[in-house]
Amino acid sequence: MARFPAELAALEARIVRCRLCPRLVAWREEVARTRRRAYRDEIYWGRPVPGFGDPGAAIVLVGLAPGAHGSNRTGRMFTGDRSGDFLYAALHRAGLASAPASRHRGDGLTLHGAFLTSACRCVPPQNRPTRAELERCAPFLDAELRVLPGARVLVALGAIGWKAILAHLVRAGQTLPRPRPRFAHGAEWKPKGGPAVLGTYHPSQQNTQTGRLTPAMLDSVLGRAVVLALRPLAWSEPM
Questions:
Q1: Residues of the chain with confidence (pLDDT) below 70
Q2: CA dist., res. 201 & res. 217, Å (int)
Q3: Are 176 and 53 in contact (CB under 8 A)?
């Protein structure tokens, strides 16, 4: 296992240096320069955000992109905003996080058996990365999953995360059924010989404050992920 943290560290360095998308580079740096009033005395991260978690993770969660004043400020996935507060509380209840809240990179929070990443590594204007931007980020997801060999369950946090996971599996040689598995909260697909794929609504404020995603709903999906993570990959269940 010793080599995996080193490989992840090297990959993180590559991600942080990325400047492939001019629109995203300009926006992330503009947000970091102007800052929100509540954080005006902080130095924003303002760079691509690498994945975060346990190198031995069995569960990998894939979100949309860093939040403007969350991950783009703190430099750690789902850290420093209300979406992260909602997600980390659920991960803690599921036994996957050491604390129920994450405030900054140095707060000591750790993940156990889980890894957090996203389809897009830079904060996009209006939370809407373009297809080309997502495609340029896709090799980073591929590379992360290559150095997370214990991953048995991929959890999509929203429809874009779901599409990113399916696209990754195709690039990895997996044949998708027809019609393709569709995203929904609680959606589940178990390909033979590959990681199970689960879907949940994204823990955005738009979803959590309207009740579209409740703590119980997210707990149910994470609980299912934990169960599936303990099973072998040679699925006997029908697809």
A1: 1-3, 232-239
A2: 9
A3: no
Residue 14's identity, in one-letter code, is R
Q: Which domains does the chain have, with CATH numbers?
A: 3-229 (3.40.470.10)
What pLDDT shows up at residue 87? 98
Nearest to 46 by CA among 71, 21, 12: 71
Whole-angstrom distance, CA of residue 1 vs CA of residue 217: 34
Query: In angstroms, rounded to a whole number, what is the distance separating the alpha carbons of residues 186 and 25?
Result: 34
Q: Please tell me the pTM assigned to this model.
A: 0.93
CA angle 176, 139, 20 (to 5 degrees): 135
Beta-bridge partner residues of 59: 114, 153
Question: Token digits for 145?
Answer: 């999953």
Tokens 């609680």 found at: 186
